[in-house]
Amino acid sequence: MEKEIIHKEFGVIVEWWYDRHLGIIRGSGDMSRKTLDHWGDSVIEVVNSFPEHSPIFMEFDLSSPTQGFTPYSRLVIDRIYHSLPFQKPIYVGIFMRESIISRIVSLYVNRREGRNLHLRMFFDEAKTLDWLHMMMKQHGVWDDSELPT
Fold first, then answer.
1. Res. 147 pLDDT band, cuts 50 70 90
2. What SS3 class is residue 35?
């Protein structure tokens, strides 16, 4: 499996896996407004990079020990949500370390599900990727022989 890794400003990393069928956005845990804005812009850029008729598969890696949830991060998430296309399914696996903060975030994430957006939060990256692989298989993006074991 070849990966394309793009190191962006403010410690944001964008990874493309499986010939750009899966986008992974890794945050640095920096909760400053500039970093959150840049993270949000990176997410929107990845969403817009998928072909017009392709489902969107993404992982948000928010596992940094300093990752938090602030009123401003909620505004960034709202901006991302309102920029999403309506015409295709979007699957986002969110990976966070288990903590009080992540439990609070999971309550917010679970309320965002709907429309064409399918969110799942996990406390283990392998489980996050397993769910995304299953969704990719359901949409015919990969068959069993192509998925990692």
1. very low
2. helix
